[in-house]
Design a protein that fits this description.
Layout: H1 3-63, H2 69-79, E1 85-91, H3 92-97, E2 106-107, E3 123-128, E4 131-139, E5 144-151, H4 153-203, H5 218-274, H6 279-311, E6 317-320, H7 321-336, E7 342-344, E8 351-354, H8 356-373, E9 378-385, E10 389-396, H9 418-423, H10 430-440, E11 446-450, E12 454-462
Parallel strand pairs: 7-9
Antiparallel strand pairs: 1-2, 1-5, 3-4, 4-5, 6-8, 9-10, 10-12, 11-12
Helix pairs in contact: 1-2, 1-4, 4-5, 5-6, 6-10, 7-8, 8-10
Length: about 475
Amino acid sequence: MRFSAKLVCSMLLVVVAFFALGGSALLYGDFTDRLTASARQEQGQHGMTCSAVESEVLSLLRQGDTVDQTALGPFCSRIGGGRDQLRALLPTEQAQAGDALQQSWYSTFPAGWTGTLPGAGQSVVTRWAGRVWRVWRSDLLNGLTLYSAFDLTEVFDARTRSLRRFLLLEGAVLAGAGLVAAVLSHRLTRPLALLSRASRRIAAGDYALRTGIHTGDEIGELSENFDQMAAAVQEKVDALELSVRQREDFMGAFTHELKTPMTGILGYADLLRTMQPDPDEQREAAGAIFHEARRLEELSGKLLRLLRLDEEGLTLAPMPLDAAVAEAVRAAAPALRPAGGRVLAPATGLWVQGDPDLLCDLLLNLFTNAAKADPGGAVTVAFDPGPDTVGVTVRDRGCGIPADQLDRITEPFYMVDKSRARKQGGSGLGLALCARIAEAHGTALTFDSAPGQGTAVRFVLRRARPAAPEKEEPHA
């Protein structure tokens, strides 16, 4: 059973239960009040009849007359009663014997009466011939007993009519409540139906779908949580798809980067193996093999450094920043010198938390990348010291990087201009290695670049106190 149907049934059950309880209480109360009022009236009439009969008995006794059926029968006929009232006068011993109405002195009870008769001083409600009667009994003077029966059929019929009207009213209320409950349940469960359809569509792959339900209640809160969950799922799926795409790009680029130098090495090696080239051709072939082998060595070295950074932890220690910059400038000189490039880096006297070799490697890769982007230009290094950190910015005035590619330049083997990068000996691993080194130092690379205006790369290092010089041991 659907939740909306359960909700409708529950609401109808509550309405029916309370309406039935309330109606039953009203009907029972009204019927009891009528029955009680009728009983008071009947008891009064019965009491008046008893008084009249006893007065007549006393009068006969004072006159010395015999108290018998002949004397009292006509009297009872004179005081009579209505058509809805029955009377019977008989000796008490006959009433006690149980044959009261068969040998009564006076009776208006119908012949063949089989209704229940009460005991002395009691009353009883009984059914006879399709009608309802209440019979009263009183024992009088001189061994007489009087029965009075009053017709209660109208009281019970009124109760039946009230009950019938109540049932009709309850049916109408039930129908109206069912309609209202159906409308309300539809409105209340409509957001749940939307959530159900949305979950099926998301399960089918529509991760961008959102419910957008704002009801201001628990269902609205559930919808907001559902949308947040869907957003998290979409982020995870996008991250997985990006990871798969990057892995595929990595494998394709890695294969290509290996294949290119290996093709050259195999080609020149085959030339030297199968032919007898002259000394100049041998030197050219050997130089090409050496150059391509160096490319493979650099590629494998960078890959190993990346793997080591991913697998091993890094312990940072206080170190002079100027020393790392100077070592990186010295190592970059062979790449800068042929085109007349240079690095402009002022001395700072600052100490930072870092690893000297890795920090030098980070700066070296940034310098060589800047030199390739602006051959012969000046690479400037700027420092922005703060109380606890120092920002380092490496800037060039080269070709720049398009804005739509800035997010991918730290991916392994990704190159903005592949032909130019390979021509300059690039492999697409330099910035990926820089990003991992920066991450190991608790920072990240930020890029500010525009085509034709150059590129600025910035990262932040934690400052450190200068290390105290080690004291020499005194000679014995």
